[in-house]
Amino acid sequence: MSRLQFEAEADHAGDRLDRFLTAQVPDFSRSQIQRLIESGHVTHSRYTKVKPNSDIREGDVIGVEMPEVQPSAALPEDLPLEILFNDRDVVVVNKPAGMVVHPAAGNPTGTLVNALLHHVKDLSGIGGEARPGIVHRLDKGTSGVMVIAKNDDAHKELARQFHDREVEKEYIALVWGVVQAGRRIDAAIGRDPGHRQKMSARAKHAREAVTRITRAHHLPGLTLCQVAIHTGRTHQIRVHLSAIGHPIVGDSMYGGVHRRVPGDIRAVQRLERPFLHAARLAFTHPTEQRRMQFIAPLPSDLEDILLDLPGWPPEEKER
Q1: Looking at residues 233-249, what average pLDDT do you find?
Q2: Could you tell me if 66 and 1 are in contact, meaning their C-beta atoms sit under 8 angstroms apart?
Q3: Which pLDDT band holds residue 271 (cuts at 50, 70, 90)?
Q4: What was the pLDDT predicted at 152?
Q5: What is the rounded distance in angstroms from the CA atom of residue 9 to the CA atom of residue 264?
Q6: 129-142 pLDDT per residue, tens
Q7: Spatial CB neighbours of 300, under 8 Å, sequence gap ≥ 6
Q8: Are strands 199-200 and 61-66 parallel, antiparallel or unpaired?
Q9: In sequence order, which residues have a C-beta less than 8 Å from that of residue 288 and are 6 or more positions away?
Q10: Exactly one of 139, 153, 192, 301 is catalytic; which is it?
């Protein structure tokens, strides 16, 4: 039985224990974390009796005993999946839009984990279960590059790189209005107290989050942005762009669906998801220590929208 240990930082203060651990061990769903807590596999430096809603303060030390590897509760499914790279330690995929990362209430099947269990045959087990190790997530409606660990050692090293902000993550987003390249959004993000499915830049309990617009191409009433994130908070890009008054086109949760759209850009009304794509991911291989970069081109559903907008493709190289 392996053991993980985490020390809470200042921006974790006020979190519930189950939410804290879900962020620290992203390949576990919140319900799985709750089961570990309730079965006595989690310790808390300030409590002898630990509960899912035990509070977190700066300096708290949380231990998690991971049970021995068992067959995955998720079943393999023969789902289409573009694999960009695969070796004994990691697999890199181009996740399609519409696919949830791992099974949970409301999405028990059809997930990335189900697909990986079918396509990847040499998983040695993560955290006590023979399944892929999810070290970061993309929202259901977001397409693009993801790296997944195939064993515990790779999982721990990749998780460290994400935590220490050594991973480069760049996205493509189409937003409402005019946004200039170089814009930096530095606003903490937390759970929206009025809507449990949403995040907010005005939450009482929030964690640091930084987003940068690195390039911008202006279209009538819209901006196609290249976005880099220095942190990986839930819905970060969607929340930050909405917070500055430029929500992502097609994002109904954060104000990106407009009923009245000028005729020349009416193509955006065909969008069935937010115009957000994880275009580039760079990290250091967990065992070979070589820097790796993966790029996923804009998928056809988003590219088709762009081609129907005036001013695209650009006539000259963007400055």
Answers
A1: 96
A2: yes
A3: very high
A4: 84
A5: 49
A6: 657 888 999 999 99
A7: none
A8: unpaired
A9: none
A10: 139
- Tell me the residue type at 305: I
The residue type found at 146 is: M
Please report the sign of the dihedral spanned by the C-alpha atoms of residue 35, residue 236, residue 188, residue 186: positive
Q: How far is Cα 9 from Cα 58, in angstroms, rounded to an integer?
A: 5
Higher pLDDT, 10 or 196: 10
Give 221: exposed, middle or buried? Use CB within 10 Å, 0-12, 13-18, 19+: middle
Helix, strand or coil, per DSSP, at residue 258: coil
194 CB contacts (<8 Å, ≥6 apart)?
A: none
- CA–CA separation, 171 and 231 (whole Å): 13
Q: Does an H or E element contain 86, and which?
A: strand 82-86
Residue-by-residue DSSP string for 154-215? HHHHHHHHHHTT-SEEEEEEEEES---TT-EEE--EEE-TT-TT-EETT-SSEE--EEEEEE
* Closest C-alpha among 3, 316, 304, 2 to residue 174: 304
139 is catalytic: yes
How far from 301 is each of 96, 125, 264, 277, 318, CA to CA, in Å? 11, 35, 18, 11, 23
* Cα separation, 312 vs 300, whole angstroms: 15
**Mean confidence (pLDDT) of the chain:** 91
CA 281, CA 300: separation in Å to the nearest integer?
A: 20
Residue 70's pLDDT band (cuts 50, 70, 90): low
φ/ψ of 77, rounded to 5, equals -135, 135
